[in-house]
Amino acid sequence: MLFAEWTMTSLSENGVFWFVSLFCVVAAYIDGTQLKVPNAITFPMIIAGWMYSSVAYGMAGDGWYMGLLWSIGGTAVGLACLYPFYAIGGMGGGDVKMLAAVGAWVHSSITISAFFLSAFIGGLMAVLMIVFSKSATKHYYQFFGILNEIVAVKDPEKLSEMAAARKHTMHLLPYGIPIAIGTILHFAWIGRLF
């Protein structure tokens, strides 16, 4: 009886976080198998987040428009966190929209924290990929070559073209996976999954 009560209470209080976690798992799986997060799941998730926040705030008496503003703000934060990396060809647009979708549901501050944890996990995964590929020297020179390009070129369009040209020579990290892991771990850390 106590477990059933705890489960129902947890789901009612934390249902949004469980739903966003499920979305993250699905998006990460697709990214891991297809190296893209499709618009078919990110755009509906963003719009549904805007609608949910509007309704939830409206029902709480805070005004539907406040919920919509908070949700759009979270979406913008999710976009802003990853867009610079997308602009220079460092990741796909689906990853950016995935974090924007998270922001639409859980708003700005949680999205920022999830981004930082995701970045840490993504960096760790990249290092492990390099170590296990047994081509650390090649990646070392690639990393500093890319860093030098960013400092020297500074034009996002040119950097994106250069990134596209070398894409076939690199081990690609499906960044939806670190976004999912970082987001879900952050939800657990703040006690929203239990």
Task: Provide keyphrases for this structure.
mainly alpha, disordered N terminus, 194 residues, 7 helices, single chain
Quick overview:
This protein is mainly alpha-helical. The chain is built from 7 helices and no strands.
Overview of the structural elements:
The protein has 194 residues and is mostly helical. The chain has one domain. It has seven helices and no strands. Helix 1 crosses helix 4, helix 2 packs antiparallel against helix 3 and helix 3 packs across helix 4. The N terminus is likely disordered.
Helix/strand layout:
Elements: H1 2-34, H2 39-59, H3 64-87, H4 93-133, H5 136-153, H6 156-166, H7 176-189
Helix pairs in contact: 1-4, 1-7, 2-3, 2-4, 3-4, 4-7, 5-6
Range of strand content: under 5%
- Average pLDDT, all residues: 89
Uncertain stretches: 3-11
Structural class of the helices, strands and pairings?
A: mainly alpha
Largest sheet: none
